[in-house]
């Protein structure tokens, strides 16, 4: 299972940003799940793997606008 959670890019400077969503889904359902929460034409920019939590961190871009930060982890 994969846990996905995201918060709005405008909250990225906050120490406790409001979450857009938190959910757990089978790996094969991740693309469909992301399409439900973000516009179809967004791009995902891999930033880094957190060395402590092993989460993968992505910026989510809608054209030239960063709209969210997405964290993924295997559970």
Give a description of the structure.
- This protein has 75 residues and is mainly β.
- It has one domain.
- Helices cover 11% and strands 51% of the residues.
- The protein has a 5-stranded antiparallel beta sheet with strand order 2-1-5-4-3, covered by helices on one side.
- Strand 4 and strand 5 form a beta hairpin.
- It is globular.
Please outline what is shown here.
With 75 residues, the protein is mainly beta.
Q: How many discrete domains?
A: 1
Structural class: mainly beta
Can you list the strand order of the major beta sheet?
A: 2-1-5-4-3
Distance between the termini: 5 Å
Helices and strands in order:
Elements: E1 2-8, E2 19-25, H1 30-37, E3 43-49, E4 56-62, E5 65-74
Antiparallel strand pairs: 1-2, 1-5, 3-4, 4-5
Which descriptors apply to this entry?
75 residues, mainly beta, five-stranded antiparallel β-sheet, 1 helix, 5 strands, 11% helix, globular
């Amino acid at each position: 299972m994969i846990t996905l959670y995201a918060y709005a890019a405008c909250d990225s400077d906050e120490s406790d940003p409001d979450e857009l969503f938190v959910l757990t889904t089978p790996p094969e359902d991740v693309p469909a799940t992301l399409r439900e929460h973000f516009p179809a034409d967004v791009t995902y920019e891999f930033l880094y793997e957190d060395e402590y939590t092993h989460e993968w961190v992505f910026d989510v871009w809608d054209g030239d606008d960063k709209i969210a930060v997405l964290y993924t982890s295997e559970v």
